[in-house]
Specification:
It is flat and about 90 Å long. The chain has helices at 2-12, 42-63, 79-83, 116-132, 140-150, 165-172, 189-223, 228-236, 240-254, 257-263, 265-295, and strands at 26-29, 34-37, 72-76, 93-96, 101-105. By secondary structure, the protein is of the alpha/beta class. It has three domains: 1-132, Glutaredoxin (3-Layer(aba) Sandwich); 154-257, no CATH class; 264-302, no CATH class.
Length: 302
Amino acid sequence: MKYKCIFFFSIAFAMFHGGLCANEVRILRDTNLTVFFEPSLDLFAEEITRIYSGIKRDLGIIFGWNLNLRPSVLLIKERKTFQGLAESPLTVAFAVPEKKLIVVDCSRMNVDPFTMENTLKHELCHLLLHSHIDSSILPRWLDEGVCQWVSDGVGDIMMDQKRSVLNRAAFRGAYIPFSSLESAFPVDKQPLMLAYEQSKSFVNYIIGRFGKEGMLKVLAHMKKGENIHAAFLNALSVPVLDLEREWHSSLKKKVTWFAVLSYHLYDILFGLMAVTALYAFVRIMIKKRAYLKGEDGDDVVY
């Protein structure tokens, strides 16, 4: 139902968009795509039309697949408006493959690591995968993992690049099973961030072990209609569940106490500062009381 509303919004955007007059909304069309945007976002719209062909070409080279569709891109100026459409407040962009639609929160663009080029590449990768692989057999974790790999690690959501949720999960062995991430990702912040990190890490592990060609073979088998289990077994001769366990082991070996402590570095420093401030306060109070006792003629012991 949300997807239908989103698609309607992309059409109604040109007429209404929260009370805007029709002449306050622009539509930029060319032979490749259609961009809906407010006048103040004209530079973003022009940038998209300028870089689209290059991104489309790059995706074709990576996958060996054609992007035979003409997508629509809806640019949102206000963060609040975008959040009314997005699944999570952490989301900065999303794709609706069945509607060939990409929605972008322009208020978050050019905020490290999100550039319009990387973001558009990530979302177009979603459209490409779903245009060649039946959505019913494409797990969400594989979809997100591959798109993050293609877009240099950039995902759909804002994450603290210095604080890895995955390192902490690996240390505790508290992973989210990929079987639970096939159709949807969690809603809550920490599990959502972990789902994205896991997806990216697992795809990188597969590529590190079997090469880029191994990952592409899996996708090629899925393009033929094979489910995730058959595709991995036929392409890599290893069950995906075995690879998941091996990936867990590889992460466990890499994670150290230092890595876990670094995740909590800010909390530790804040705690130490609080203790230091409390200690200083107590010393001041002790000295003040001692001074007052001295003025009253009481003996002061130092």
